[in-house]
Amino acid sequence: MNNIRSTLAIVWRIAAPYFRSEDKLAGRVLLAAVIAIELSLVGINVLLNEWNNRFYNALQEKNWEVFVRQIGIFCILATFYIALSVYQLYLNQWLQIRWRQWMTRRYLGEWLHDANHYRMQLQGDAADNPDQRISDDVKLFVDQTLGLGVGLLSSVVTLASFVVILWGLSAESPLTISGHAFAIPGYLVWGALIYAVFGTALTQWIGSPLVNLSFEQQRFEADFRFNLVRVRENSEQVALLRGESAERQRLSERFGRVVENWYAIMSRTKRLTAFTSSYSQAAVIFPYILVAPAYFGNKIQLGGMMQTASAFSSVQQALSFFVSIYRSLAEWRAVVARLSGFEMSIASAMTQATQAPSIGVVSSAGSDKIDLNKLLVSLPHGTPLVSADGFSIRTNERTLVTGPSGAGKSTLFRAIAGIWPFGSGSIAIPARAKLMMLPQRPYFPLGSLKAAIVYPAEASAFSSDRVRDVLIAVGLPQLASRLEEDAHWNRMLSLGEQQRLGIARALLHAPQYLFLDEATASLDEASEAALYHLLREKLPATTVVSIGHRSTLAALHQRNVVLSRDGDRFALQNRREDVKQP
């Protein structure tokens, strides 16, 4: 019961926001329509149950007129049943897509808000494969929640409706054993209840491991798919290193987990199916066994027997709802657990950005420099990495940051960008200042070359002529005629060409502060110097801060800052300041 209450509480937390959202009117109307149609279908089933009595009595009595009339009534009821079923499916699918659309937008917004997606990666494996959770799990959650919810409602209403009928039929066809009638009030209802409780208990005992198995299967499938994508994205490196055999081994191991878990699901499903199938088949004949003595004792007619069997079947199915949907319920609980974990991981990532101790990035009105005050940048588990106090990045000054590998130079840039919360102290940035970070390997979204260059702005934000001029300026005139070509540019271009495109992006956006994290390391020294001179010429008001290891970079900057060992961390120290501008 605790597990049920916990699961329902999680489902309510995930599902309820949609029905309180800006789309709540459409969602509530569609849900109400689906429920109303389901209740109408139950009502038609009640009418069909009564029809069974009249129809089979007409057959027994060979009453042609009643037989023809009942055929006509059946056609009318069947027409309404078919029409309602069709529109219930249509409205259900309409509600599904609106609900899924809202949840997808919400999860995308929260996942991509303020670098949450990045901090979630730093947390480890708390929410693996967010792509699967947003695409597959949201779809399954909406589909299965509606299906199970409407099915449960139908079972409850069916039970309430047919219990009354079955109780009355118990009096009309008393329990008969060896020709002796026993007046047991509602014995058919008690028989259906005992049968359902027995089936439910055994189903839970046999099928309970399917919940965890289904959860693991989704995780293993997503992990296998993710690693396939990684091989595709890094196919050049794999080919250069002749890593096909290693990748095949790694992928085989991950797929082996899929197969192994699937065999476990197969074994458990075989047992569950063997029981549920036996249970369902026995349920067909069980009511006839109960009422057959009364029928052959001439206490009820054929119509009463058929109505009793139909009512018993409806009550038994309603009581056995858990048995019939157990496999779907196990999969649904796994989906709920994955979405719940995803939401908690997002919430944790949001908290990391603000909870103490954390690095505070604040806006400083009237300031013309970035100030690092009592800053301590740490690793996610708390190990100190970089410290700086009273350090400033001055406007219109080109600064070079150097230090040994692993000293935390890139992590310091991430902290300044506001995506690395681990640590303490504060970073004051001039109000409304625009920062841009260029890593060693720039990111280019799939699409046209123009859209890739101007990212994250829209392609229409800059004219094609402006983008062509910038391409020529950074030394890529051969790409000027390919702006509208769609391609995977991170794979199509060399790393040097990608770094030139990164500089082109900076020239277009013209930030107040430009941070270059070895953003020209793949270029030769002459090309690197030419791009730095281009930045100074085209962006004279931009403050450039670079990370690099080449000695030639020192001549291209006015200030050299080094990260040197200071106890258990590295500290920023000025090596050379206020030299002549190169």
UniProtKB/TrEMBL annotation:
Residues 370-582 form the ABC transporter domain. It comes from Bradyrhizobium erythrophlei. Belongs to the ABC transporter superfamily. Keywords: ATP-binding, Membrane, Nucleotide-binding, Transmembrane, Transmembrane helix, Transport. Involved in beta-(1-->2)glucan export. Transmembrane domains (TMD) form a pore in the inner membrane and the ATP-binding domain (NBD) is responsible for energy generation. The keyword Transmembrane applies. One of its GO terms (cellular component) is plasma membrane. It is a multi-pass membrane protein. One of its GO terms (molecular function) is ATP binding. This is Putative ATP-binding cassette transporter. Gene3D superfamilies: ABC transporter type 1, transmembrane domain, P-loop containing nucleotide triphosphate hydrolases. The lineage of its organism: Bacteria, Pseudomonadati, Pseudomonadota, Alphaproteobacteria, Hyphomicrobiales. The keyword Transferase does not apply. CDD domains: ABCD_peroxisomal_ALDP. It is found in: Cell membrane. It comes from the Bacteria. The chain crosses the membrane at residues 29-48, 68-90, 146-167, 187-207, 272-296. Residues 29-331 form the ABC transmembrane type-1 domain.
